[in-house]
Amino acid sequence: MAGKKLSNQTAIVTGANSGIGEGVAISLGEAGANMVINYVANPDAANAVVEKIKSFGSNAIAVQADVSKEDQVISMFQQTVQQFGTVDILVNNAGLQRDAKFHEMTLAQWQLVIDINLTGQFLCAREAIREFLRRGIVPERSVACGKIICMSSVHELIPWSGHANYATSKGGIKMLMQSMAQEYGREKIRVNSICPGAIKTPINKTAWETPEAYNSLMTLIPYDRIGVPEDIGKLAVFLASDDSDYITGASIFIDGGMTVFEGFATGG
Ligand code: NAD
Asked: Has this prediction a pTM greater than 0.85?
């Protein structure tokens, strides 16, 4: 796989058998990276992503791990290093929602979302940085020692009633990402967040599956379309490649303008 933007680099994408993670994994694979397709359930879907990436001529394996479990995350990195020699790129994508009115939210709903969306990103990023530091820079592959992309959300900025656990996890990712970027910049490790608006995936099906829901969603999006996983995939390739070498500690919003607050278009 020589001559492509991410040739000879190895990328782990968590939660890569669905939605945004799948789109990102396919884009990175198309750009030449060896791909680790992490999944927690539904191995058939993970294997389908592996086969699609192999059809581009890139290497890919599926690795099962629950990102909220330390031993499973460590094992996923060990399997990756065993298979491909190292890790160059981590996309911390796995996440879920457990929505509830705040006064009715159970501790279990709160804890699950924090454990997977936030602690999961900590555990995976820690293993990635350990591996980056062990390996050091390999100039033939990248001028950076390693790249981490955190899948955040417009909800690291926009409060979200009925989703306090989710919005809190994304607000936490902002500080996690920036603290890592600050701590490891001198080692040439770049850490950035992608902050999607509404992207058409299973996580937010109720927001787009009927015309009424879709039209209501569009009142929030000046660009007047829902996003698709390929939109995020293209940005992930840019952030993983040396094209973005001077970008670290950044939250990049990819939301059709959702964060310009369309509700104020008529004067507020
Ligand atoms: P999705 O439900 O299609 O995908 C989520 C993936 O995470 C699935 O593959 C799921 O199996 C995996 N996952 C869940 N728990 C896991 C665990 N413990 N270990 C490993 N994997 C686990 O939803 P999506 O929209 O593709 O979401 C992906 C990411 O994008 C999430 O972090 C989400 O918060 C974020 N996001 C999505 C949108 C959107 O509009 N779809 C907007 C902003 C942010």
From this structure: yes
